[in-house]
Design a protein that fits this description.
binds heme C; Cytochrome Bc1 Complex, Chain D, domain 2; 128 residues; single chain; elongated; mainly alpha; 0% strand; 37% helix
């Protein structure tokens, strides 16, 4: 009787194994965090650099400075999907929202431009 009781109590506290192979791995349903490294590759392979420069620094009339981005991710995505000027549109068939988040993460690694007065090399030209 005691043995049966002990077995019963053990059963109560024994965790029931989940059937293996049925549940997805813990990370499968989580959206991966945006990756600046992947973004750099997408930025290059989708030719953003062609108009905005390899570092998003802008190339004058061809494309404005976009690194670091001046808009929040939502505004950035909206603009790239439906640009208002000379830029070609990149629909979600070309770049998924997650891809744009990666590109955004890459552009965020850029530092803001220094003011001309803060660049020592330009000081001698002042007033000329
Ligand atoms: C063919 C040239 C060209 C390419 C390629 C291009 N852009 Fe642009 N982009 C422009 C121009 C020009 C503008 C300035 C506004 C306009 O005319 O649409 C612009 C504006 C932008 C802006 C708005 C900047 C602001 O004022 O906030 C964003 C963001 C942007 N581009 C992102 C991208 C991304 C990301 C890619 C690649 C997926 C890309 N662009 C590819 C030409 C280009």
């Amino acid at each position: 009787m005691r043995v049966a009781l002990a077995l019963f109590v053990m059963m109560l506290f024994t965790p029931i194994d989940k059937p293996k192979g049925l549940s997805p791995p813990a990370s499968a349903d989580q959206t991966p965090a945006p990756s600046a490294e992947k973004g750099k590759r997408l930025y290059t392979s989708n030719a953003c650099y062609f108009c905005h420069g390899t570092l998003g620094q802008g190339l004058g009339v061809n494309g404005s400075r976009i690194g670091p981005p001046s808009r929040a991710l939502a505004g950035f995505t909206t603009y790239v999907r439906r640009p208002t000027g000379a830029m070609p549109a990149f629909t979600d068939k070309i770049l998924a929202d997650a891809d744009l988040a990666d590109i955004y993460a890459f552009l965020r690694t850029m530092s803001t431009a220094k003011a001309a007065k803060d660049i020592p090399l330009l000081a001698p030209l002042k007033g000329k």
